[in-house]
């Protein structure tokens, strides 16, 4: 991660938000692409504990969250705070584009 240039990230954001008229529509466009292209599930470590990221969700407050589980415990984590594994899953560049957009 972090290997894409600013121009590449901005081109990805443009692709995701091409038909968006406002920030809410831009967010929805980015979320839709993230949901479509992020290869799920994948495992990562959160606070030293291995979790499975099994989905993403757009919350009513406008936050994009990663839906994480460990055994029967399920917990959403803001996608901007989600540590990614190495190597990152396919499609993780869209998380990087969302981070860039969210500024």
Short description:
The protein has helices at 6-16, 23-37, 93-102; strands spanning 42-46, 49-58, 64-70, 73-78.
Characterise the protein shown here.
With 103 residues, the protein is α+β, with helices and mostly antiparallel strands. It has one domain. It has helices at residues 6-16, 23-37, 93-102; strands at residues 42-46, 49-58, 64-70, 73-78. It has a four-stranded antiparallel sheet with strand order 1-2-3-4. Helix 2 runs antiparallel to helix 3 (93-102). It is globular. The model has no long low-confidence stretch (mean pLDDT 95). This is Calcium binding.
The chain-level mean pLDDT equals 95
Gross morphology is: globular
Order of helices and strands: HHEEEEH
Structural class: alpha+beta
Neighbour order of strands in the largest sheet:
1-2-3-4
The count of strands amounts to 4
Number of domains: 1
How large is the share of residues in beta strands? 25-35%
Query: Helical content, roughly?
Result: 25-40%
- Output the number of helix runs: 3
Radius of gyration: 14 Å
Terminal Cα separation, in Å? 16 Å
Low-confidence stretches: none
């Amino acid at each position: 991660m972090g290997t894409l240039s600013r121009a590449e990230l901005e081109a990805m954001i443009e692709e995701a938000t091409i038909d968006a008229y406002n920030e809410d529509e831009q967010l929805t466009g980015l979320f839709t692409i993230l949901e479509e292209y992020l290869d799920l599930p994948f495992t990562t470590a959160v606070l030293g504990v291995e979790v499975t990221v099994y989905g993403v969700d757009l919350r009513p407050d406008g936050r994009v969250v990663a839906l994480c589980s460990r055994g029967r415990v399920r917990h959403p984590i803001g996608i901007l705070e989600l540590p990614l594994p190495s190597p990152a899953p396919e499609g993780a560049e869209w998380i990087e584009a969302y981070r860039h957009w969210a500024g």
